[in-house]
Amino acid sequence: MPKQKLNVVGKRLKQIRLSKNPPVTQEQLAIQLQLLDWEIGRFGVSKIERGERQIIDKELMLLAKVLNVDVNSFFEQ
User: Fold this and answer.
1) Which of 39, 40, 36, 38 is nearest to 26 (CA)?
2) Which of 19, 24, 34, 49 could make a disulfide contact with 10, Cβ separation 3.0–4.6 Å?
């Protein structure tokens, strides 16, 4: 039985991150989030993208801010 995903935004996070020009690496994203006082590293970003880490609303807002997108962009249409 496949492992249940712990978030619904991870797949879109990766798509958004890679769609930037130039693409944003997990490490670059983690550094920008750390500047906003979120203690997360590249491995944490990777776990979110794989659905292996839950994410709270405040964290989602920080991701949207750093990637310059609307929060709704993380939810698949």
Assistant:
1) 40
2) 49
